[in-house]
Amino acid sequence: MKIDVQDFESLVENFQQRVDRALDQWLPAADVNPLELHQAMRYAALAPGKRVRPILVYATASALDIPLDRVDGAASAVEIIHAYSLIHDDLPAMDDDDLRRGRPTCHRQFNEATAILAGDALQALAFYILSHDPRMTENASARLQMIENLSLFSGSRGMAGGQAIDLAAVGKTLNIAELETMHIHKTGALIRTCVQLAALSTESLDETQFRALDSYAKCIGLSFQIQDDILDVTGETATLGKKQGSDSALNKPTFPSVIGLEASYEKAQELHQHALQALSIFGEEADILRYISAWFVQRKN
Amino acid sequence: MKIDVQDFESLVENFQQRVDRALDQWLPAADVNPLELHQAMRYAALAPGKRVRPILVYATASALDIPLDRVDGAASAVEIIHAYSLIHDDLPAMDDDDLRRGRPTCHRQFNEATAILAGDALQALAFYILSHDPRMTENASARLQMIENLSLFSGSRGMAGGQAIDLAAVGKTLNIAELETMHIHKTGALIRTCVQLAALSTESLDETQFRALDSYAKCIGLSFQIQDDILDVTGETATLGKKQGSDSALNKPTFPSVIGLEASYEKAQELHQHALQALSIFGEEADILRYISAWFVQRKN
Lengths: 301, 301
Fold this sequence. Notes:
2 copies of one chain form a homodimer.
Chain A: H1 5-26, H2 35-45, H3 52-63, H4 72-90, E1 99-100, E2 103-104, H5 106-109, H6 112-132, H7 140-154, H8 159-169, H9 176-199, H10 207-234, H11 237-240, H12 246-249, H13 255-259, H14 261-278, H15 287-298
Antiparallel strand pairs in A: 1-2
Helix pairs in contact in A: 1-3, 1-4, 2-6, 3-4, 3-9, 3-15, 4-6, 4-9, 7-9, 8-9, 9-10, 10-14, 10-15, 14-15
């Protein structure tokens, strides 16, 4: 699909609204018992947010000409995993954050026990969706592969492992390789999964195309995090929806703190270029993914 | 398989050892990064315990003449889900327990953040196993069904929901129906899943047999919890591996506190009889399941 930047922005908005409708349907109703648990799950998963991960699922599906209703389940599942990880990351024993996306964090709005359980139940819900959604690909083996990828990339060798490395790094000096390892796990793994889940929804992709998309996803997963670190230094609290400087306040190593602000900008740009190179085997149908890579390194929140 | 009580005890021991070997292989190695997270996962999942849930998976497989290596994955997955739920239930914001199975709880042995993440990563691992284990049934649709059942029964409408009801019930007076609802979710749902996962590993089961096994599982899931409540009143701390009276100390409603000790015994026996009735369509091949039902209501720890 040939698109310009206005088309892209309008598509992003459509994808955001689309996943919010899907999430609303998958999440347990707020008036069904146990009430508080279900309300906390909805509060966290439907909180205002960029919906970066579902957008990436939909964008990959668009680039590969996959009907969007076939990836609604995958888009919902990755956002739900992301939402659960934010709830748990914000807990007093972890980052101890009071504010998330401009609102009280889940444990501040409800209570700690409910927040822990809401995260747990959201994780289970993500796997429920991938195993259950009747509109997804009928290829059961491909769906098992999606579940395998999501579980691997969200577990101890993925997102949860990245968070553990992050917590262990507080107050320590990391070198650039260690910092990259942390972010590749903490943020990159789930972003990579988004592209993979969409790619597994079609059978018309060959190995070379799958690998190219995966390389692209690895690049933008890291550039996304670098931009996050940059915004933690340069952004404004109101735009960010969390306290500016909150990572540095926690004495967490970030790209700017390790290699400086200028080198961080350059690193992000370099990854953007690598992402574009990875997509070179695709034609203009992949323009939407090119725009996403640009968005990741140019965004202001 | 025709067995006597000695055979049963020896089988149970074999199953315990078998699942411990399987768990050891599925869990990330303790010397692989992130070290502390992986050590906490192993500490919790390999802790001394009865292994009731995997035993039930293996016993159902035995009764249905399913090779045990086909259900090693399911047996590991249910124990891992159980282990994650115990880690999170023990947290300060939840039951705030220091002792579990005779050892410091995970957050006491490590720290709270690591315990939260270990629980999260264990949940992901359970779904990884069900989607990945090459020795399980080759029927990909049946495996998707297993994942659907495990995610449903461990989520907000199952185990996690039961824990939320439990927390909300502290200090309140529940009637017997409310207490049953809580336990059907908190403990019963996962026990029911054990039987279902084994049953889904064969294609030779008809609908009537599947339903009979499910009825059996529902009965023993509740009788197991009633016996737990009874032991909380009558058991000894050393035998239980947790503090005797810890539930009543937390002011949690239990079967003895709601209907009295004598009626609790009777209720457990009644459920045991219903479980046996449910199995009446099976011959002596299901004796192992009959012994399990008896064990659940006679056990001392």
